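Attaching the record inline, Q. Sequence:
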Amino acid sequence: MPSIHISLSASICGLTAALAVTITPSPTEAGGFWRGEADTEILFVEGKRVVRLGAIYASPMFDFTTIGGLPATDTNYSQNFWSPNLGFKLQILPNLACAATYFRPFGQNGEYGPQALTAETGQAIAAGEFPNPTTSSDFRVDEYAGTCAQAFKIGPGRMHLIGGVFYHDFDYINRTVLGDMELNDGGFGFRAGAAYEIPEYAMRVQIIYRSEVDHDAPGTFYTSDLGQAAGLPGSLPATGYGTLPQSIEIYAQTGVAEDWLVFGALQWTQWSELPQFDYSVQGLGDGREIFNYSDGLVVELGTGHAFTDQLAGFASLTWDQGVGSGADIATDMWMARFGAEYDTRNGVIGAGVAIARVNEGKQRYADGAPFDATADPDWAFGFGVNFTLPF
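Structure, as predicted:
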């Protein structure tokens, strides 16, 4: 049976999330700020040297239905985003391959309108706190990684031991009416796992563990004109700290008929490792952004088909249980993904789309949210492209 190259890694972000099946993004997965996984699938692509270049784009369309008990008039708080996905594989020995990859596994960006700012200001005053509402927030993690797979002949197939290290470049910007806090930090983590495959049946079972990374990020609070008018200096030292979570993904695929295969994946992410992001601004005091997420679970099932020896496609359905507990709106969702790959004989071109339906949710000040709000079900869309060149 012809080999169908269908690689999958679950993906997503607090207000959104992103996913990838080599090519397709998704707008919410494993909850939190997860936007996808590095392209370790390139280790299984045939060829002594392989380059894969890709990008995903996601368009979440999330807005509030009510704010503070009143009908919401603000526009979407979620923002569109894109992410490159780069990989290079080298077959060092017949049984040893290594890959260098780049991706943005975590991220979040949102902008909040006047009604949300008014609600956050009112809640702060009612609680006896100094009001400094957030106008927008933006953070992302750039991951640079090296991963290797050592293969052993076992029975009719091959066992692969997989391991590597990655480096996080963490950037965080939080804009408020009094100023902008900009933080940056770096940190190392590792991934480890194993896979067993029988290529003639298009069968593979794989498990990959990805470690958590602690961040203690220094930076600066740049005071706005309003803040300086209130007597604050132009800039102040700042720090922030939190842990980006560990995760485990199990993936399996097998051929079921000529030119057909089925695949599935399960991903668990320990978002409870990040109950909040703490920060401190010298001269202003301490603060925190509360999440109180539960651990995330994502399940995906799909099928792939080789239409010809050059053209293959896939379709899948994903369920994400959601991670929100009231500190923000991060509810469960269903997502469909569709994609295709075409072998030009001089490289493989891939493209895919994702459509997600996110269920209704609510956040409450009593549960750690900056203000009370509800959201009706919303849609999110994504697409991705890539090009794979073995040489």
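The radius of gyration is 22 Å. The chain has a mean pLDDT of 91.

More tomorrow.
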